[in-house]
């Protein structure tokens, strides 16, 4: 994950949030090893939103599934998700807004967005990924 791509993802995510009239957003971009490449929060975003965005991205990356899929599976396996959250030091948030990032089918990282409803967070992330010509997994 190159820094200029991570910054472009943040910029496009925030621009889409403004276009949609979303609440102030926070977004985090991780490389494929789970290291933060870039993260930012818009003016007015709650201070915990960066941590929530990172948990969406990190949880997705560590379990190999987008956070929407994780949110759909969590009710059927509460013990697994409780254990996973504990083992991942709380860096797991099974709610829409976290996407795996792919380039030519290869995993390059993850993005997590938090600040509005999960569907809006996810829509902003998807828009950014598509604008940059990348692929994603939900």
Automatic annotation (TrEMBL):
Gene3D superfamilies: Haem-degrading domain
Protein name, entry field: Heme-binding protein
Recorded superkingdom: Bacteria
InterPro entries for the chain: GlcG_carb_metab_protein, PduO/GlcC-like, PduO/GlcC-like_sf
Xref: Pfam families: HbpS-like (PF03928)
Transmembrane parts of this sequence: none
